[in-house]
Amino acid sequence: MKIYDWYDGPYPARVRIALAEKGWLSKTEFVPINLWKGEHKKNEFLAINYSGTLPVLELDDGTLIAECTAITQYLDALDPSCALTGTTPEEKGIIHMMTKRAEIEFLDAVSVYFHHATPGLGPEVELYQNPEWGNRMCDKAIRGMYYFDRVLQTQPYVAGDAFSMADIAVIGGMIFAALVKLPVPADCNALREWYTRMQARSSVQQWKAMVDAERACRERM
Ligand SMILES: N[C@@H](CCC(=O)N[C@@H](CS)C(=O)NCC(=O)O)C(=O)O
Fold first, then answer.
1. DSSP H helical ranges for the chain
2. Fewer C-beta within 10 Å: the chain N or C terminus?
3. Per-residue model confidence (pLDDT) at position 164
4. How would you write the pLDDT of the chain (221 residues) with one tens digit per residue?
5. Binding-site residues, ligand 1, Cβ < 6 A
6. Closest Cα partner for 2 from 31, 37, 42?
7. Complete DSSP assignment for 88-143
8. Can you give the residue ranges of the GST N-terminal domain (predicted)?
9. Which has the closest alpha carbon to 194: 166, 165, 171?
10. Contact at 8 Å (CB) between 16 and 67?
11. CA proximity to 52, closest of 110, 106, 121, 118
């Protein structure tokens, strides 16, 4: 299995954490696509993913699967013993809903804020910016954090009683929020407590160790 990604990207983190949950990180080849150099918008990469985003999974026969949710669903189908996308029809429906909600209300909103209301990936890559739209999405992301705080006041995980793809999507939002220095509101105690638990999880620690090692390696170059 081959994954095109960028080592510390919040969306790539989602797939790396899913792979770690399954114990497959070391079996995966990671192909770096440098976001800061805009390699994801070059024709060569657009032929791999029309949307020009990371990550993308490439199977041994050349089949390409983009989108974190689609990749996670594929990994789950290969290994249903450690299900991240649910097993019963109800679990599958709720996990899909909460994952989508994590993207729309939080992670994607932080991403729009980053690309539109901050320097983002720099002037060479950010060819169109709309700061007003970016700032509105920042407000939306903060409302999203309050929403997930309320959810986590009554249940241990984002989609209910078990860790799932929906938790990983909110973790992606927290990683991105930290990158853009968007603090979690001080009164979001349930969200903060949940994130402390998530950061102690082996898969998240493995992801962080990989990022730290790659960052140190790149700094030496
Ligand atoms: N919906 C996509 C979003 C992926 C995404 O936005 N990835 C980021 C990497 S952290 C990216 O490629 N950003 C570059 C850009 O939007 O220019 C998914 O879930 O995979």
1. 10-22, 43-46, 68-78, 89-102, 108-117, 131-154, 165-179, 189-200, 202-220
2. C
3. 98
4. 999 999 999 999 999 999 999 999 999 999 999 999 999 999 999 999 999 999 999 999 999 999 999 999 999 999 989 999 999 999 999 999 999 999 999 999 999 999 999 999 999 999 999 999 999 999 999 999 999 999 999 999 999 999 999 999 999 999 999 999 999 999 999 999 999 999 999 999 999 999 999 999 998 87
5. 9-12, 35, 40, 53-54, 67-68, 111
6. 31
7. SHHHHHHHHHHHHHHIIIIIHHHHHHHHHHS-TT-TTT-----HHHHHHHHHHHHH
8. 1-83
9. 171
10. no
11. 121
Contact (CB, 8 A) for 22 and 82? yes
The residue contributing the CA closest to ligand 1 atom 20 is 67
Ligand 1 mutation pick, 4, 5, 11, max ligand atoms within 8 A of CB: 11
Tokens 């938790």 — which residue? 167
CB 188 within 8 A of CB 149: yes
Query: ipTM surpassing 0.90, yes or no?
Result: yes
Read off the tokens for 183. 């603090």
Which residue, judged by its Cα, is nearest atom 18 of ligand 1?
67
* 53 alpha carbon – ligand 1 mean position (Å): 4
Which of 39, 85, 111, 128 should be mutated for ligand 1, with most atoms under 8 A from CB?
A: 111
User: What is the CB-side half-sphere exposure of residue 86 using CA atoms within 13 A?
Assistant: 19
- Strand, helix or coil for residue 33: coil
Q: What are phi and psi of 3, to 5 degrees?
A: -120, 125
Longest dimension (CA), the chain: 49
